[in-house]
Amino acid sequence: MRFRLERPASPAWPATYAAVLASVCEGAAGDRKWPPPPELLTSLGLSNRTLVRNRQVHGATVRVLAAQTSPAELAERPEADGLLTDRRDLVLAVLVADCAPVYLVDPVVEVMALVHCGWRGTVADAAAHALQQMKARYGCRPENLVAWIGPSISARNYQVGPAVLAEVRRRLSHLPVEQSILPGERLDIARLNRDSLLACGLPEENIEVSPLCTYEEPDLQSYRRDGDRSGRMFALLWRGESGTTQVSADSKPQSQS
Q1: What pLDDT score does 25 carry?
Q2: Edge-to-edge strand list for the sheet holding 50-52
Q3: What global pTM score does this model have?
Q4: What are the sequence ranges of the domains in the chain?
Q5: What's the CATH class of domain 2-154+206-241?
């Protein structure tokens, strides 16, 4: 089995949290979408951790996983596009294949969130909703948060049409949206999410945006490029147990046999 891992490169990202985008390149017949291949989880040291995911619906609902959330509830998949917790025993997971995975961590309060942001979720300001929940439920301060916007489709490959752009302009009027709209009705969802986090008070130096385009990278999954033949990528976020978390995740494809 061969897979590719991407992770934050910014020195602002806290070492006690691991954020990974894993793309299964080949050898995943029958389990392209869920669960992640056992070989991948083993390589990341996650074989005995509880992975939690939602039934993604391209919205802005954020699911909170509290201390009292039962194992049965963790196994459920309610409709939501964000996950939020302060628990150390959980791995947050979303599936993407062009949409932007937005990772949020507060290393001071020790809270983490992971949000699936396609154009609909971006227009719904899903990342900002997650941040607001972090503030309301855990007392997080935006200036302490660190964010990584993982690989997604770039604006040069993402033509959306006038109806989508009208929604962007109408619902995100508080952001400098014209900077995220390129000639030819092309949309930069990563930049829109970055601008949303900036508007929420995150320091610019605490936000990293991956330069990789899923459409252009053959080892990354892209629905716009491959249609129904595309696989899915696993966006994973978890808290380390030993104070530091080391993940082998350079930009080259990783091989497992």
Answers
A1: 72
A2: 50-52, 90-96, 233-239, 17-26, 2-6, 253-255
A3: 0.91
A4: 2-154+206-241
A5: alpha beta
